[in-house]
């Protein structure tokens, strides 16, 4: 019998050989207004991997942040609204989520978000070293089964890229509500020589950082009695004294 977690029927492969995206690209049929946002706004706001990140924003920002898998875009919109001087790049291959972010951008009048509507791994290598002030990986798909471990987004290669891209003293914010995912996220980042977990007391991982908002995904987890945790890492300086 096929269990839901074993059913890969709506999972699609990605173009380059060896790089496979295991999530959903499409959900329910989009309403006309949402499709209109995708058709009209996405081409204007799409991140261009061939150009330096900083020149893609109206005001060249000193600080650029990346969110990997922004879901419905609630956090990306909140972060961008709180830091109009900074630039935000969001990567999300699920087109319904992209449409949702475009609605937040329109409603809040945001001009500092660029969107990569595909697998984040396709743009990391092309971004310049130390070009990010921080990155967010919030509630990634948990892939709790051992045989699916290779599907987890924070694979060593991705973490190495994030270590290259996040400037010294920059931040890496991780979150999860799934016990297995919490442990693989923590293990991956804690064992990486370039990242330092900043937690000093349990409230540091139990309380949502102020800049973040509860997303639809997070609220569902709480309704289902799963406990969310947040893990804040700092990109170490390379000098041995740090
Ligand atoms: C469980 S959802 C969480 C969404 C959101 N971060 C939140 O907290 O509500 C995980 C998201 O990661 C996205 N995702 C998975 N693999 C990805 C990849 N390789 N690049 C970019 N996004 C990815 C999925 O499409 C999905 O929307």
Comma- or semicolon-separated keywords:
seven-stranded mixed sheet, 7 strands, disordered N terminus, alpha/beta, Rossmann fold, binds S-adenosylmethionine, 242 residues, 9 helices
N→C terminal distance: 54 Å
Q: Any idea what the radius of gyration is?
A: 18 Å
Q: Please outline the major beta sheet.
A: 7 strands, mixed
CATH topology: Rossmann fold
Structure commentary:
By secondary structure, this protein is α/β, with parallel strands linked by helices. It has a single domain (30-235), classed as Vaccinia Virus protein VP39 (Rossmann fold, 3-Layer(aba) Sandwich). The protein has helices spanning 32-40, 42-45, 74-82, 95-108, 121-124, 156-165, 179-190, 203-206, 216-223; strands at residues 64-68, 87-91, 113-116, 132-138, 166-176, 195-197, 229-235. It has a seven-stranded mixed β-sheet, sandwiched between helices. α1 crosses α4 and α3 (74-82) packs parallel to α4 (95-108). It is globular and about 45 Å long. The relative contact order is 0.14. Bound molecules: S-adenosylmethionine. S-adenosylmethionine (SAM) is lined by residues 21, 23, 68-71, 91-94, 97, 119-121, 138-141, 153, 215, 217-218. S-adenosylmethionine binds at residues 21, 23, 68-71, 91-94, 97, 119-121, 138-141, 153, 215, 217-218.
Record the SSE blueprint.
Elements: H1 32-40, H2 42-45, E1 64-68, H3 74-82, E2 87-91, H4 95-108, E3 113-116, H5 121-124, E4 132-138, H6 156-165, E5 166-176, H7 179-190, E6 195-197, H8 203-206, H9 216-223, E7 229-235
This protein binds S-adenosylmethionine (SAM).
S-adenosylmethionine is lined by residues 21, 23, 68-71, 91-94, 97, 119-121, 138-141, 153, 215, 217-218.
């Amino acid at each position: 019998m096929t269990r839901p977690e074993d059913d890969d029927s709506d999972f699609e492969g990605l173009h380059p050989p060896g790089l496979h995206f295991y999530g959903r690209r499409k959900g329910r049929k989009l309403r006309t207004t949402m499709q209109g946002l995708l058709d009209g706004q996405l081409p204007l706001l799409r991140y261009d991997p061939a150009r330096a990140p900083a020149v893609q924003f109206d005001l060249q920002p000193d600080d650029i942040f990346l969110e990997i898998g922004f879901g419905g875009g609630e956090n990306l919109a909140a972060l961008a609204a709180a830091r109009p001087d900074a630039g935000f790049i969001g990567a999300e291959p699920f087109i319904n989520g992209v449409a949702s972010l475009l609605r937040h951008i329109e409603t809040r009048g945001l001009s500092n978000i660029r969107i990569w509507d595909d697998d984040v791994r396709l743009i990391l290598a092309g971004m310049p070293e130390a070009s990010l002030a921080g990155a967010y990986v919030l509630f990634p798909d948990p892939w709790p089964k051992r045989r699916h471990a290779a599907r987890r987004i924070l694979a060593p290669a991705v973490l190495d890229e994030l270590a290259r891209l996040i400037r010294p003293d920059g931040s890496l914010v991780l979150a999860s509500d799934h016990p297995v995912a919490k442990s693989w996220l923590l293990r991956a980042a804690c064992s990486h020589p370039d990242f330092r977990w900043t937690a000093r007391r349990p409230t540091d991982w139990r309380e949502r950082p102020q800049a973040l908002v509860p997303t639809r995904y997070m609220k569902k987890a709480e309704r289902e009695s799963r406990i969310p945790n947040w893990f804040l890492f700092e990109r170490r300086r390379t000098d041995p004294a740090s």
